[in-house]
Design a protein that fits this description.
By secondary structure, this protein is of the alpha/beta class. It has a single domain, classed as Rossmann fold (3-Layer(aba) Sandwich), CATH 3.40.50.9100. It contains five helices and five strands, in the order E-H-H-E-H-E-H-E-E-H. A five-stranded parallel β-sheet has the order 2-1-3-4-5, with helices on both faces. Strand 3, helix 4 and strand 4 form a beta-alpha-beta unit. Helix 3 runs parallel beside helix 4. The longest helix has 15 residues. Bound molecules: 1,3,4-trihydroxy-5-OXO-cyclohexanecarboxylic acid (DQA). The site of 1,3,4-trihydroxy-5-OXO-cyclohexanecarboxylic acid (DQA) has 10 residues, from loops.
């Protein structure tokens, strides 16, 4: 996925969606490179593969799922703010590098008060010290870290359970 904004490869879904609960999956910087980016750490699964897997799973439950990836902090904040007025019920978030730096993205999530699960492909606690601190984990419903692409499926299962029984 060389260009996250290209129509062909994009996981940034803007097509018309049927009615039903909505989950937003937010991917931070460099996650557009999944598949080729440090595969020993992040695996070979692409962001497109992850989106396809999540969409199939959510659809089977009558839930709409939208994915948005950006390398820009401001774009991610704008997407979270928009989610606040769009009736998004749940967010699954991999803030990537912004996990460890972004007070502003944290503030956006706190402002819209949409429950969210923090996901990391790698086990951030088994890596460099600077990855051990998250600006999100204390306001998240929970964190899933270290299960590779499967972490998104685990997060989706948890989100679906929450949507059904808040
Ligand atoms: C990551 C872990 C972060 O520390 C890193 O900056 C990423 C990906 C993960 O999914 O393991 O970009 O969020």
């Amino acid at each position: 996925m060389s260009n996250p904004k290209s129509k062909k490869d994009s996981v940034n879904s803007d097509k018309e969606l049927p009615a039903g609960p909505r989950i937003l999956v937010l991917h931070g910087p460099n996650l557009n490179l999944l598949g080729t980016r440090e595969p020993k750490i992040y695996g070979r699964t692409t962001l497109g593969d992850i989106h396809t897997m999540m969409e199939a799973r959510a659809r089977a439950d009558g839930v709409q799922i939208e994915s948005f990836q950006s390398n820009g902090e401001g774009e991610l904040i704008d997407r979270v703010q928009a989610a606040g007025s769009e009736g998004i019920e749940f967010i699954i978030l991999n803030p990537a590098g912004y996990t460890h730096t972004s007070v502003a993205l944290r503030d956006a999530l706190a402002a819209v008060r949409i429950p969210f699960i923090e996901v990391h492909l790698s086990n951030v606690h088994a890596r460099e010290d600077f990855r051990k601190h998250s600006y999100f984990d204390d306001i998240a419903v929970g964190t899933i870290s270290g299960f590779g692409a499967q972490g998104y499926a685990l997060a989706l299962d948890a989100a679906l359970t929450r949507i059904r029984r808040p």
